[in-house]
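Chapter summary example.
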Amino acid sequence: MNSSYTAILKQDGDFWIGWIEEVPGVNAQEKTKEALLESLKDILREALEFNRKEARAAAETDYIEEPITV
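The structure predicted for these 70 residues follows.
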């Protein structure tokens, strides 16, 4: 399943900094815009996987998964 997110990017001196607007805590800093976008994708994937595991652990057992579209 592919989802779209919004990357907020800004050049700050010799670096590019960026955030994923929809997911708090997903941010990065790199020397190039291209490297920043790749880092943000990697960090976003890790954050989503962590959140997925945390939610399933909190539910423990006998839970159902239901897709939600906003």
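To summarize the output: Residues 16 and 30 are 5 Å apart (CA to CA).
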